[in-house]
Structures are given as structure tokens and as C-alpha cells.
Amino acid sequence: xxxxxxxxxxxxxxxxxxxxxxxxxxxxxxxxxxxxxxxxxxxxxxxxxxxxxxxxxxxxxxxxxxxxxxxxxxxxxxxxxxxxxxxxxxxxxxxxxxxxxxxxxxxxxxxxxxxxxxxxxxxxxxxxxxxxxxxxxxxxxxxxxxxxxxxxxxxxxxxxxxxxxxxxxxxxxxxxxxxxxxxxxxxxxxxxxxxxxxxxxxxxxxxxxxxxxxxxxxxxxxxxxxxxxxxxxxxxxxxxxxxxxxxxxxxxxxxxxxxxxxxxxxxxxxxxxxxxxxxxxxxxxxxxxxxxxxxxxxxxxxxxxxxxxxxxxxxxxxxxxxxxxxxxxxxxxxxxxxxxxxxxxxxxxxxxxxxxxxxxxxxxxxxxxxx
Length: 371
Hints:
Shape: globular
CATH architecture: Up-down Bundle
CATH superfamily: Cytochrome c oxidase-like, subunit I domain
Order of helices and strands: HHHHHHHHHHHHH
Mean pLDDT: 94
Number of domains: 1
């Protein structure tokens, strides 16, 4: 098990990242609620999402470049650094140590994916590298706030990290959703791609994110959110084909991207409500869909024949999103109940992934190939 687990980055980081996400969510809706909001935000962005991003990129960069990424002892060392940060963060007793370890983890991750990309001069990956760099920058600001070097830097660091993760989600979604759709549906399919949506999708988001970090809720910020909603809605419409609804690992990605569109639209009117449309529906939806698919493909299994349970897991996650987003319009007396219900549904979705996929992650590929 030990050697297999550290053969490729997706294995330990998908397994441990998902497990930690479940623990962190359970603590947030349980004993940590409502006094640990910054802790909750930080751990879901830098702890949970950070691990999944690490696992995905260490695997994808190997495919993109044809060069090896971390494996064996170096990979175990990087995983160990992430685990130490989580252990230091869980009790909240040594937050500066946890933040320092997280920063070291992200810097080492950036170096690990930069090395093969630089060797083959594959500079078209600059967007991915920039996203990870901004994630590290957000963690650096967060650490500076804990060291009292940056007043009010805690929320700023978290916001930078959040939008860095969402930028990575948008970059990777723009690559994988049309690619998987064209090759995953039955029969020929021609997707509609518009040069102007590809040209403006990421720049509009980056402008919106920058202003949301610096001047949240401003008129220009809201206008950019509305423009981003329109551009990404058209982009998603162009990727749609009816055949996706027969493939759970396709429709989950389309619905998750749809939640990003909804999040941008809501952000034009109610930025606080938009946050969980973007994170629970968009970010978590993309994460769950991708870890289900990547775990199948990279363990030698057929990505078109996922375990039957995955559809139920996706429904649970998107039900969690509906509950969490609709809390704003509920009777205040129902707020805590609804928040905890959303958290329980989220936990159930990712716990189901662990239950069904964990053996795939720690066992060798079924086709006998390395990886």
C-alpha cells in the first residue's frame, strides 16, 4: 500500500485531502461554529482545495510534459508537510506554525510543477503556474497577518487564495470540459466555440477578482461580475450537447460550471450569497467530478463506467449547494439548521467518494501499468 500510494500525486492528495475536508467541515458545523469562520475558510481553501490541486497538477503536469513529477520519497515528503500543517491547524493552538508550513508546501508545489514545465519550455501553462503562485501569495499574506506584519491581512489572504483557486478551476475547466464532452458522448458531436468567449473568459474573471479583493461590492465590481456571468454562460452553452446527460462524469462538470455562472450572476446583486454558489456548487462540484474521473482513469479503469453511486454523490453535493445558497432567504431562525444540513450533505457526498474510491487510490493499477 505504501509504495503504491506514493507512485503519483493524485493518490495521496485525493485520499487525504478528501478525508481532511470531511473532518474540517464536520468541525465547522459542529463544535467550531460560529466562532471559527476564518479557520473554516482557510482550511477549505488552503487545506482541502490545496491538496486536491496538488494531486491533480502533479498528475496532469506529467501528462502535459511527458516528464516525471514527484513520486516515492519526495512525494511522501510533500504530503507529510501538508499533513503537519493540518495537524498544527486543527487545534488552532499553533496557527503561525500551520501557516508557515502551508506556505512552504505551496512554494515547493510550485517548484515541483515548474521544473518539468520549464524543461520542455511549455509556457502555455503560465496560467496554471500563476494561479498556484497567487495561492502561495494569499497564504503569505495570511501568515503576515498572523505575525502582525499586515493589519487586516487575514481576510485579504483568504480572498486572494479563494480567487486563485477559482481561477485554476476556470482554466482547467476550459480545457477538460469540452475535451471530455467531445470524447465522452455517444455518436459524433460538434461543440460551439466562440473566440470572444475564450479571449475574455479569464481576463474578465481576473479583473472581477482583483476588484473584489481590493474594493468588494463596488459598482464596477458588480458590473464585471455580470459581464463574467454572461461570457461564461455563453461558453458553457457552447459546450453543451444532449449526450452529456447519459454520462454522470460529464454532467457533473457542466452543472458545476453552471454554478460558477450563477455565482457571478448573484455577485452582481448580493456578493455574500454568491460566495457559496461559487465555492460549494462550482469549486466543490468541479473537484468531486474531477477526482472521480481522474481516479478511474489513472488506476486503469474505464472512465465511461464509473461506480453507480457517483450520480447519488453528485446529487447530494448539489443539494448541499441549493440549501447553502438559499439560506439567505430563509427565516433567520432556520439559519443554523440549514447551514448544518448543507454541511451534512457535503460531507455525505465526499464520504461516499472515499468509501468507493479509497481502495482504488491505495491499490496498484488494475491493468498492471506503473502509476
